[in-house]
Every structure is written in C-alpha cells, then in structure tokens.
Amino acid sequence: MLRALLVDDEVNNLESLAFLLENDCVGIKVAGKTTNAREARIWLSANQVDVVFLDINMPGEDGFQLLNSLPTRDFKIIFVTAYNEYAMQAIKASALDYILKPVNIDELQLSIEKLKDSLQNSSALQQEKQVLEQFLSQLGKSKQPQKIALPHLGGISFIEVEQIVSLQADSNYTIIHLHSMQKMVISKTLKDFEDLLDANHFARIHKSYIVNLSYIKEYSTIDGGIVKMTDGNQWSVSRRQLDNFLEKMKLASLMFEK
To answer: What is the sign, positive or negative, of the torsion defined by CA atoms of 214, 217, 221, 224?
Structure first.
C-alpha cells in the first residue's frame, strides 16, 4: 500500500483529493494532510511517504520553496494545482507529473498507475530525482523582476522592488512605505501585492501589513508581537501569521541554535 502526503492551503481541495484517493484509487493510503509548507516540513521530518501531492501556489512558502527547503526528497511528487500555463510548461519539460484543479478522477487514477510503474523502476526513479534537482536549481536561479509598476491617477510609477520597506492596507487601497521615507497610495488591495511580491523577501504579518524582510530591525514580543522597521514604523504581528513570519526570518537570518 502506497503512502501519500497531501499539501494544499485550501481545506476543501485537501478533503476532496483525500476522498478521491481513498474511495476511487486502488493501492494508496492518505497518510497525512497539511495546509502549508511549514506543517509539511515538520510532518515529513517524522514520517515516510511514497508520494507527495503538492499544491504550488500557497501563501508564504510555495510548493517549489518547500521542496528546496527539504534536506532529502525520497518520494515522488505529483503537483495538484491551478497554477498558470507557463508553470505547467516548465513542469512538463522537467518530466514531473501534475494534475490540474479541479481534479478529474480519470487523470488522478492515471497518475496513480504512472506512480506505481515509476516506483517499480529504480533507474527511472533516480532519473526523475535528477531532473527534479535540476528543475529546482534552475528555478532558484531565475531572477525576480527588479521593478514593480504602480498605477496611480496620473499614470504609472516604476519603483525598484527593493526600495519597498512595507505595505499597509487602507480599505481597497494600499499605502506603500519606501526606503526614501516617501509614501505612495495605490488603488490595489494588500492581497494583490501579496500575490505579486516574492514570498522569499516579503512576509504578510497581519491582515493589514506586509513587510520586506530586509528592512526588519527588531521583533518585540511586547503587546502581543511587534515588528520594528528601519524607517521607524512599527507593525503588529497577528497570531495567525506569527509562525510563518518567524520561519521566514529564520531562513533569512543567521541565528544561534538554542
């Protein structure tokens, strides 16, 4: 019996996929379900699986970042995602299996059969591991755009992404705090910016704030948790976002072991 871990930030998708695997697919068992990269990393450190069904586009760390953070990857990966066509082409080129959302049972059953064949062929499995390593390596080398286009009433401003210190929600607008101490009010929601900015460098710490990790001066546990920025602003960290924020800071900083 093959063991599977399911990783998806949308609980409905997670439960739906688990139901299909357990009721309509032969020879596979759902051993675990997690809703983010951090949970998946902890789960995998204590458990073994044959396959991970992995969503790509998740808040905080995406599926690719999760894979890059793992010391070993002794399992097959099947991406289950609504990701855009460009990413799908990249995955196809790397010979990695994937299923588009919403999941079609015929495609899922076909993937399970391909999985079984792959696991029985040690040379094919090793080749897939090498292809995955190469794919993730190339993905890590790809550069994010250096500028961001910010639409406003008078036109569009092109700002260096690294100049953004933090972003603050203001109803359906976002206030951007720049390194130059200037502010810009943009008619886009904070969620729009969360989806656009590189999750390796920016963190959503509250429903009202996104911060650039490079400009964090201090994290204080006073008053429930406050992030102090280099420009003097201080933003609250919500309990919901705290673990994700601390995990990102751990990856972005040199830290002493406990």
So the answer is: negative
